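Table S2 (continued). Query chain:
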Amino acid sequence: MERDVTLAGSAAIWNRPLRPRTDGNGRVRLLFGGGKVTVPLYLDRDDVCSLLDMPGCIAAVRRAMIALAIDEIEQPLRQIVEMGPSELFATMAGTLPGTRSFGAKLVTVFGDPDRAGRSRHAGLAILFEGESGGVSLIADAGAVTEIRTGAASAVATDALARPDARTLSLFGCGVQARAHLRAMAEIRPLDSVFVWGRSGAAAEAFASRMADETGLNVRAVSDGAEAAGLADIICTVTGAETPVLFSEWVRPGTHINVVGSSYAGPTEIDSSLVVRSRYFVDSRRAVEAAGAEFIIARGAGLVTDAHILGEIGAVLSGTIPGRIASADVTIYKSLGHVAQDLAALEYLRHRGGKGPSDAVQAVAVTGKDFA
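Corresponding output:
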């Protein structure tokens, strides 16, 4: 498989379309007048969506979260710069526990011009290899974030939800709702999926589209209380500034993935639900510093840091218990962690290196392409 590639730059030659071929090493080699430039492999959104399959990403993230829970290396907290109203620039750097790989994600969260009132992620995720310190892979950060976030919630749900959970309710109808529906369907046989959105029309359109895409019974509901009351599993994946899910709506035995708010400020669930739950997190340090719903409950004196029972990796490894009783309400607070991004990138690199995907092999360039 080959495709045309345009390399942007100041010299006219960089704007020539190329017919790329693989060099077998996952890098682009460009020859100019006897000189040589080596450029790391770049995967755009289409490449990532083609290669980063949900089952494989779930397995990769699961391994990473277990390793993160037992790793003695302290990972840096995410840094967020507010560029303007509802405009964020975030940097996430760290290592992939259990390997020598390390890397970073540079991402913006700005309004989506194609979807009024919604935001999108844009940026780059970069994987370095530990032997030489060289860059081994660069990928579209929006696509990686979309898939790995759903995968991380699936890992947590598999560990914390009741084994007989069969109904899913999604609060939100954007890209993360789609990713979470796909992810939840990998770890539980879903009988019904309910969708609530702040826009009823958007929820209806999403439900119809996902029913066609997945073959599942997906329908929109106009009342949040109804959506919550029908669910064994709830995923809040909204951009809401104030709670959209309340404790009084949630029936005993429900598992909830709280995903939409990724920094101190916006909240998706009320404090009563935080207090009521067995509360687990992706990273204790991160949630203590930036988990909005937890910070508000703690600030009100309703909980202490001890309310965080542990990181999901410790549940997965068997170090701490997750769900104890069928009637427990469990919460997984997802802020997102760079180890999840790096696990996804390492999986992508591995897939490309083993050759299952023409898409990865299609971006390597040799000097004769300039003939």
